[in-house]
Amino acid sequence: MHIPENYLSPSTCAVLGAAMLPVWLMAVKKVRQEVPPEKLPLLGIGAAFSFLSMMFNIPLPGGTTGHAVGGTLLAVLFGPWSACLAVSLALFVQALFFGDGGILAFGANCFNMAFAMPFAGYAVYKALLRAFPERQLLAAGVGSYVGINLAAFFAAIEFGIQPMLFTDGAGHALYAPYPLWVSIPAMMIGHLTIFGLAEVVFTTAVLGYLQKAAPEIAKGRQSKAGPAVYGLLALLICGTPLGLLATGTAWGEWDAEELAEQDYLGSVLGYIPAGMEDGFSFEALFPDYAIEGMPETFGYILSAIIGTALLVLLFKLAASFLGHKTNYDAPAHEG
């Protein structure tokens, strides 16, 4: 679901980035008001959960892959505004250091995965929890399924409108070449089935584990991570190489040469869209979570450690820079 560089036009990226700007400002304001500074490192660990979940690629018949995101899980644990900020920073680290998602498309990726997903998933979760107060895992699972599918739908729309709006003199698409009637089913089939199920499993498994091993954190009443949380983080880091078992590239994430050779519905595209060939280019430090000179598996694990450390560090620094604006009289978020 990470939209790469040059799949969306610069103007599309600008519109979605502009749409996210007030969301980010409000998210920072809400986090300053609602999250005590001493709890921000725990939110950083939550962001790391999201970062790591996206490294577990899952194959789908046909050669494509996908992954969970954990946006609704973070919304359940910390509230939707905190989840928005945490997933945004996870996406920022992925794009800047690992080339997973475009720099120009950062606003679009955040709109889909850091805004639409946690807010929609959390709304469904709260509605179900009001109807079935003893079924928190069920509510979180259904919310996560709705959240990831809404995010995938928005990504499909963003892909699909490109050939309607941006073509060259020969009628070739300048950016993402597949129209809505291709992009929507291509994105939704995987997310309505395997990838949506993966999001449900990840959300309910982590939430269920925290309810038993760290119940005060699951209820939002504890500010510091304990052995149970660090143990889960270590387990996820060590397990990330499982994501390497999935072969193929996620739909809509091919490089330009792969895209030209795509045979979709019996028709090879046969050209590289000009906007991709001549578009913005950015070389990440560790592209595809690979470390030069290291075996693929070790490089993947080291990338997981680097990403996790960066996110925890960012939120520790944020605890200093955001200042002490927390309203301690306001009710704390409780999952």
UniProtKB/TrEMBL annotation:
NCBIfam families: PRK07331.1, PRK11909.1. It is found in: Cell membrane. Its main location: membrane. GO terms for biological process: transition metal ion transport. It is a multi-pass membrane protein. The keyword 4Fe-4S does not apply. Residues 228-321 form the PDGLE domain. InterPro entries: CbiM/NikMN, PDGLE_dom. Coiled coil: none annotated. GO terms for cellular component: plasma membrane. Keywords: Cell membrane, Membrane, Plasmid, Transmembrane, Transmembrane helix, Transport. The chain crosses the membrane at residues 7-28, 40-60, 72-97, 103-125, 137-161, 181-207, 228-251, 297-315. This is Putative cobalt ABC transporter permease protein CbiM. The gene is cbiM.
